[in-house]
Amino acid sequence: MNDIRRTILWVIFGFSMVLLWDQWQVFNGHKATFFPSAVNPAATARPAPPAASVPTGVPTANTVAADAKTTGATGQFTPATEASAAAHERLVVTTDVLKLTFDTEGGSVVQTEFVKHADMADKSKNFVLLDNNKDHTYMAQTGLIAGATGGAFPTHKTVMAVAPGERTLQDGSNQLVIRFESPELGGVKLLKTFTFTRGAYAVAVKHEVLNVGVAGVSPQLYLQLVRDGSKPLGESKFYSTFTGPAIYTEAKKYQKVDFKDIENNKVDVEKTAESGYVAMVQHYFASAWLLGDGIKRDLFLRKVDTNLYAVGMITSLDNIAPGASKSVEARFFAGPQEEKVLEALAPGLELVKDYGWLTILAKPLYWLLHAIESFIGNWGWSIVALVLLLKAAFYWLNAKAYASMAKMKAVNPKVTEMRERLKDNPQQMQQEMMRIYREEKVNPMGGCFPIMIQIPVFIALYWVLLASVEMRNAPWILWIHDLSSPDPFYILPLVMTLTTVLQTSLNPAPPDPMQAKMMWFMPLAFSVMFFFFPAGLVLYWITNNILSIAQQWLINTRMGVPPKFHLPSFK
């Protein structure tokens, strides 16, 4: 029965690897390798109009996309809509951490550069998140739509005047204020005030609506993020990270949505809330609109045009009498997914740093890693120290597993001889094998369960290292200048492959030749994938391998089973 169980486990493991690879390919925009599915015609068709629960007055359909297609690198183009017939220009605002570009058309944010984060392809340049050019569309927009009173109000297509003043946060100053004012439309003026704070990626945004007409008005304010559905440049094809919109509410918590689900009208998220945020997420970075708690808002996700999508929220302003005004306070965040910063900004915002289903384990692991780094001062050595602590915590579990493996290795000669002697009688072979294990007090599965218990912890640590922006451009030693990029000389992957081979060779070889081959094939295939993984992940795995080899060697020696390396035979 033992051989049968092992064979079933290997088959399940192998089939799981095949399915995972297929899903990996699909996630990265390729066809599945082993089980390709028919193309869904809905994926290429225009979706149905937005649901009735989403106010239809938000001027996103076609207008944003039309302008995006005709916008050059400088943003100078002739708008396609009557509301934006006037000339508009771009305005660059610089702080100690942000270089943000506005378009006076709507006072929209059309580009964000992060002064303290270099671009991965060209490290002499700042990393750009939001951008609006012929190849990439990603903007933050706000405006007004008509409420019950009707009317044409200032939108993100309305060219606005910018107040004179500083455009750079000066030394000794903690804040910088930029103001936009719209012309009168429908008896309404819209004033937008952006307040930048030193060291902050979150910008306070005040929308003030002035009724300059002769009748009361009840406009609605919308805040949205518009982005194309393309993956970020330089995204690895060997591991998957999420890119797309997300919504957070108290009722349903964090809900991320694939672009393809918006395309196919398969979106099921909370439609109304009085707290939370809307966001656009990608590896390491995110943008979000944040409204204060207690402000009722409608949430929407929609397709704007071909490969262009929007996520946003709409809040209604009560009736504004002639000569009166009302304001709404919001915040716009665009920056790195630094967990502690996100936690301080808004409840649940730290969830844009996506650990998946192992968040409950990953968050304390990140906290511990961060604490270690604050003491050591190097993320690479902090990874080594954290793995060392985890191995120490699991020492007795590992000891039981390796002791069981050592016993298995000690009885393997008996089992091998018996299998050769009874190879023509499988039933008797199984009975004799179970008798040997029983007499020698060996549990064939005894080495598996202690290790399986630890697997979720080490998978969670894997996601911590993959998701943490702190690894980006973080050096370790010598030639490793960026723990988030693959080793340029493949030295770490080669060391990892060697340690994997050594660790596998210390394990007891299965009596069955096919199982013995599979025991070698899977770890080696796994090692090859790590040639394309970030150096920080490879470093973590090498450390884990070395400590496992040392512990296994020590336990084998104590039990009188001399540790011997055996090489695979593929005859």
Q: Which ranges are low-confidence, i.e. pLDDT below 50, for 5 or more consecutive residues?
A: 1-13, 27-57, 60-85
Strand content: 15-25%
Based on CA atoms alone, the radius of gyration comes out at 29 Å
Shape: elongated
Structural class, judged by helices and strands? Answer: alpha+beta
Q: Say how many strands there are.
A: 19
**How many helices in DSSP terms?**
12
Largest sheet: 9 strands, antiparallel
The percentage helix is 25-40%
- Terminal CA distance reads 25 Å
Oligomeric state:
single chain
**Main sheet: strand order:** 7-8-9-10-19-16-15-12-13
Q: Output mean pLDDT.
A: 79
Structure description:
The protein is an alpha+beta fold and 571 residues long. The protein is built from twelve helices and 19 strands. The protein has a nine-stranded antiparallel beta sheet, with no helix packed on it. It has a six-stranded antiparallel beta sheet with strand order 5-6-11-18-17-14.
Quick overview of this protein structure:
This protein is α+β, with helices and mostly antiparallel strands and 571 residues long. It has twelve helices and 19 strands.
List the helices and strands and how they pair.
Elements: H1 2-27, H2 63-70, E1 90-94, E2 98-103, E3 108-118, E4 126-128, E5 131-132, E6 137-145, E7 161-162, E8 175-181, E9 188-197, E10 202-211, E11 220-228, E12 244-249, E13 253-256, H3 259-263, E14 272-273, E15 277-282, E16 285-291, E17 297-305, E18 308-316, E19 325-336, H4 339-345, H5 359-376, H6 379-393, H7 395-421, H8 426-439, H9 449-467, H10 491-506, H11 513-529, H12 535-558
Antiparallel strand pairs: 1-2, 2-3, 3-4, 5-6, 6-11, 7-8, 8-9, 9-10, 10-19, 11-18, 12-13, 12-15, 14-17, 15-16, 16-19, 17-18
Helix pairs in contact: 5-6, 5-9, 6-12, 7-8, 7-12, 10-11, 10-12
